Amino acid sequence: YNRPNYIVETIESVLESNFNDYEIIISDDCSPKSKEIKKNIEPYLDKKNIKFFNQKINLKEPENKNFLVNNSNGLYNIVLGDDDKFYDYTLSTLKNYIEKYNNYSIYTFGYTVIDQNDNKIYTRKSPKKFEINQRNKFLKKLFLCENIPLGVFHSATYCCKNEVDKDIPFSNEAGIGEDFMFLFDALNNDHKIFTIPESLFMWRKSQERSAADHFNQSQLDYTNVYARKEILYH
Q1: Band of the pLDDT at 212, cuts 50, 70, 90?
Q2: Is pTM, for the whole model, over 0.70?
């Protein structure tokens, strides 16, 4: 959305993967820069495993994610931001963990924060693998602690079974916290989360507040407070 140059880097990072059994589905959510986005994506559209949808109306983030999920055909889905990037080993590493620990619905993992120029800022990941379920102590910490989950995994980018994503849609009721609310909805439906102790993607976070086209809404403190309030109410 409004980041025609970064989306090319995102696509390239997936194409460079050492794992090949995937599809890429892109939705621009009626971006004001849709023409530039389409122009940049066009060279990739001759590949059978890449699809691009130019939305006629602005769905907003939760419904845009639901649209992507409903058009997916794989066994698992990962929602990747339009300016974030995979490592070449991301998908193969996930496949190995899923094969070894196969009784989970959601696999979360660490991340490395990069700035608008690809400079590394810091890495966050769990020191060990662990499970989150409806009954264990970590669930309360997941909601109450400001640095959790971002201290050990990213709440917006994780690997989820396709049928779970389809069964539990992203909600419009939590402000910017629709991804966080999804995790609670999944846990309340007795799904289990497995956390992988590795950094498996690069999360771009602009360090310049003047960069209006590339401003992370999650950097606004009030929006985080509002989202948590709405999730607690829900």
Answers
A1: very low
A2: yes
